[in-house]
User: What shape does this take?
Amino acid sequence: MASAPSSAPGTRRRMPTAIKILVAGGFGAGKTTLVGTVSETKPLRTEEVLTDRGIGVDHLDGVEAKRTTTVAMDFGRITFGDEFVLYLFGTPGQERFWFMWDEVALGALGAVVLADTRRLADCFPAIDYFERRGTPFIVAVNCFEGAQRYDVHDVRQALQIPGEIPVVLCDARSKESSKEVLITLVQHAMRQRAAR
Amino acid sequence: MSYPPQEPDQERWTDDGAGPLVRPYVMTGGRLQPVRGNFDLITLVEATGPVPAHVIGLGPEHLSILRLTQTMMSVAELTAHLDLPSGTVRVLLGDLLDKGHVTVQEPTPEIDMQDLRMYQAVIDGLRAL
Assistant: This one.
């Protein structure tokens, strides 16, 4: 079981509290860009080697051999003094990796679903997942250069996002814009937790 | 009996494409679960002391972890720096925790995230970036 927050014996100071926020969305929606824009270091990559447990989409009939797949997640860190450290995980968007999300989503403060207006439907699985799991989330529409500016109301309607969930426009390459996205998420998560 | 003539120097069985020379499960002695600890990706780990010169029962990967955790680091960062799957790193960390070489701090359980002060601290911290 989880060991209690261990203040190390003797000389060592107490460690900060680690918090995680997920950045989800379809392939190429700008997850790693957003993580990199606000993180204090270049995004790092962690890889999970998975056996074929739960991977059914590309199932080939009659092939019984175990296969392994590697799923990569880019992540970054922001340290707030010596009390809190925030980790941002860009999570793989493919539906077939949902079982892996359960582990990552456990204990997450909340999630940003990055929407790419050229492929709006790509973020449906993420929205559906967080709704079912009860993880606080917001939708951020990444406005690429040259991408058509969408009206947030249109996006909200197209994705059928309830009114209490924020839908915002952003530019994942801009630090200010990405900061605003995260602040909007944390404010939303705070309201949601307080209401429970 | 002779093998097909091949230049031994060009006979490269190991390269990046072939994957790591030592498979991750070998490093863990075939174990899939850590002997101790949970190790979320954001569990913070710190070595309890300097890297020992040689300790019976610790492999080179254990020592790499102790070197990296001389300053506090998350499990996710460890897996990235070691270039190993997190499952492997968890098993190795379990050994180190069991032997008292590292101290860990598990993240706040979801159920305890009612602490509104934490949310406010994150908002203020983000604004100050």
User: Anything to note?
Assistant: The radius of gyration of chain B is 20 Å. Chain B touches chain A through 44 residues (CB under 8 Å). The first strand of chain B starts at residue 44 and ends at 47. Residues 65 and 78 of chain B are 7 Å apart (CA to CA).
